[in-house]
Design a protein that fits this description.
This is DUF255 domain-containing protein. By secondary structure, the chain is α/β, with parallel strands linked by helices. It has a single domain, classed as Glutaredoxin (3-Layer(aba) Sandwich), CATH 3.40.30.10. It contains five helices and five strands, in the order H-E-H-E-H-H-E-E-E-H.
């Protein structure tokens, strides 16, 4: 299961436009400030069916990709790797979790999306 999820992410990187996902929060914060973009933080949990589905159904969509890349520096982390992001700021037990974070003060720009959110709910939040 984990291998299929990794292959799905890899395939999305190979073919056409894609979201440029980062994996290090501190580097993402520096890049966001440099590029004057806010942060889109996606927290996944291993073996989470909805986490896999959003990559296939939402994050490969051309409109979503364009709007995310235009406005945000994106980072994807796994909940189990608590040292890869400030878990105390973005703690959740609902997965996937998508946080919209200000580059200026690391506060929420708007309400996070949790669980099996839709393309429409994401586009409305962007």
């Amino acid at each position: 299961m984990r291998l299929s999820f990794i292959l799905m992410i890899f395939a999305s990187l190979l073919f056409g436009e894609h979201i440029r996902w980062q994996s290090d929060f501190e580097k993402t914060l520096i890049e966001a400030k440099k590029e004057q973009k806010d942060i889109l933080l996606l927290v996944l949990k291993r073996d989470c069916k909805d986490c896999k589905n959003i990559f296939r159904d939402i994050f490969t969509d051309k409109e979503v990709t364009k709007r995310v890349n235009d406005k945000y520096i994106s980072i994807v982390v796994f909940f189990e790797a608590k040292d890869s992001y400030p878990v105390e700021l973005f703690y959740t037990q609902q997965f996937p979790a998508l946080f919209f974070v200000s580059r200026k003060d690391e506060l929420f720009l708007n309400a996070p999306l949790f669980g099996a959110f839709t393309k429409e709910s994401l586009l409305n939040s962007l």
